[in-house]
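Please fill in the sequence for the structure shown.

STRUCTURE ENCODING:
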């Protein structure tokens, strides 16, 4: 099993800024409130407020898609990585 040494790390401040913008844009698009946000080189810490009308996995997939867009990652078909929209 891969360990911490095997993780991909983003150290470019411009790319980290793009991911921050992606998180905030996704929050705005989905009606979520970000209470705290910390972008680390290999993961993100985030505390958010949300009404309980959506399943947690739907919210997580929305952020997965938003961060993929911010990073310039798309599926082989040129569409979102996950097709659940909230």
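FILLED IN BY: designer on duty
SEQUENCE:
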């Amino acid at each position: 099993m891969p360990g911490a040494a095997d993780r991909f790390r983003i150290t470019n401040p411009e790319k980290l800024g793009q991911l921050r913008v992606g998180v905030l844009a996704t929050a705005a698009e989905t009606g979520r409130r970000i209470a705290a946000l910390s972008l680390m080189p290999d993961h993100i810490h985030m505390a958010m407020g949300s009404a309980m009308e959506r399943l947690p996995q739907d919210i997580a997939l929305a952020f997965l898609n938003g961060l993929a867009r911010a990073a310039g990652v798309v599926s082989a078909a040129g569409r979102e990585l996950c097709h659940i929209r909230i």
